[in-house]
């Protein structure tokens, strides 16, 4: 299943519901391609992550590795801003 920013226009209360359904699909073995800014969800559910900037893949790898130890400066900057906004 392809999901393109499935939570982007949702009320915060609904975000958890949608992510819960997607988590259940993942637990059931469903293959999903997800475009998201929900980094916690990606870290918990994804097997692999691709970081795309300007239509170009700048970094890819196992989700936990890429999200916890990004190598590319653009990925590092993005994650710093998203995970630690202040």
TrEMBL record:
Topology of this chain in the membrane: Peripheral membrane protein
Keywords from the named record: Cell membrane, Membrane, Transport
Keyword Iron-sulfur belongs to the record: no
Keyword Transmembrane helix carried by entry: no
A cellular component annotation (GO) from this entry: plasma membrane
InterPro entries: MetN_ABC_transporter-like, P-loop_NTPase
Location of this chain's protein in the cell: Cell membrane
Family: Belongs to the ABC transporter superfamily.
The protein's name in its UniProt record: ABC transporter domain-containing protein
């Amino acid at each position: 299943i392809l999901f393109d920013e499935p939570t982007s226009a949702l009320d915060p209360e609904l975000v958890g519901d949608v992510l819960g359904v997607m988590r259940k699909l993942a637990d059931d073995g469903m293959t999903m391609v997800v475009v998201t800014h929900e980094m916690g969800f990606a870290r918990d559910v994804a097997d692999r992550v691709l970081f795309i900037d300007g239509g170009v893949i700048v970094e890819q790898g196992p989700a936990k590795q890429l999200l916890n130890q990004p190598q590319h400066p653009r990925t590092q900057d993005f994650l710093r801003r998203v995970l630690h906004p202040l």
